[in-house]
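Treating backbone geometry as a discrete language has practical consequences that deserve illustration. The sequence in question and its structure tokens are set out directly beneath this paragraph.
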Amino acid sequence: MSFPYRNTEHPVGPNGQNEVTLTKLFRSKLSNPSPVPIPVCEGAAVLISRSALVVSGDLSHDSSHHPQFVLAEFSLRASKRGFNNFLDTTTFVNRPWDLIGHEPTILSNPDARHALYMKHHFFPGLHDYERNVHNSVLGVALDNARIKQNGLRILVDASELGPQQMGTQVVTLSMSLALAQHESVQSVIVAVPDPQNLPVYAEALRMTEKVSVIASDNLNFSNAPHVDIIHRPYQPSRQIPWDRWRQISKRIVITIQDVIGYRNGSYFRNWEDWHSYRWTFRDQIEKTDGIFCISRDVTEAVRQERLPIDSSRVFVVPNGVDHLSTNSVTEIPGELIDRGLASAPFILILGTTYAHKNRDLGVRVWQKLVSKGRRISLVMAGANVPFGTNRLEEAIAVSDHRDVVVLPDVKEKERNWLLQQASLVLYPTSAEGFGLVPFEAAQMNCPCLHVSFGPLKEFLGNSNLPGSYDLDELAAAAERLLDDGAARRQNIARVMATKDKLSWKAHADTAVEAYLSIMENNAR
């Protein structure tokens, strides 16, 4: 029952604390105050039920027996009568050492163990199992007590932190930094492709207390210490080396950002690739200890698809949205200078060319505005994808318009400039698990036209925005946001009102609460 090191007695209280401060700490962080069943009574202090004494007989009065032996034998005798032994994990008791050191538990003494076995043939099997197996009921209880005192040790799979910064990279980096600020987190280990060559946008990892960076090493995390949680904060689309991850962690968490690829075969070369993706997706979900969904919308999709995980292991953990600000560093894209559009008003469509982003619908909205005599350019920025793209439809739609600029995936500074300078951002999609663009636009004091259904309605319910993809309705809403100052301010203010509720600090608070709940459940 030793703490904080299991089966290892220690002469000094954890981090200089004593029985009073530790008990106060444990009781202030209760999530499940139920006592923990154990096979035989053991510990620095033992309380005995009067009823057990009445039914099971008195304690042994043989003076040759050690008091711990007497208590253990009585608890085994009482268990035959239907009584149970429990550990109170909310109370810390300090048993002092004598001058020659601590006295080890009598249940490790070979003679005492044999004597107890002769009296009770079911001892010591379950006792030894609970004492030594890390995922036993006792093991889980002691782990959670240690976490309450020392904090969580979290390893973040950041193997997607490559040179391009898109939504996945923003989420992974912001989450890691926010977790490091949380009082219940002891350390955050971030596994990246190359620790010696971090992308510029990720340099903050090196300068943040409690954060260390290691090589992801093809997801093997060769230099990783032992941790409580390994968290993959994006799609489970790649086979995880489960034996290795289980070896260095107690629990594994995966974030599901959406089920778009799971449901949409157009993003794959052929049926075989899509089937492989779906099989891998389900296989990883079936093995993980818990999943985070970034919206209730995604949680409902997980339920609809009957993904193999119990609802008690599914947690809604929304992303933060406060990673940008109006004073972020900016840089004008060179293409706009070359085209002489550096100071021209423009509408921005931001996002990859995946068909579900509906960028071509945004083009048609812009065309409708231009057809009414409005002089405004269109800028589309985002990486091209090989399959499931609507790039051809976009190209056809804008083939005869010189006021259209198509940019590849832009750098962070260029994205900041585009958001700050745009007259309006068009975001004509609802097929997202969350949707960062409207929040990023508002942070840069720019209105965003999006639809009011799906996850965007969940977080940004707005009766003034379109409830469908009707082109006339979208164009009319765009005109209001371009011409009506009050409508623009209201659009931005409605989004900014979510800043505290959807901050990265709030994300870390929700994530830590979910981690602790997952730690209280057995690993799968």
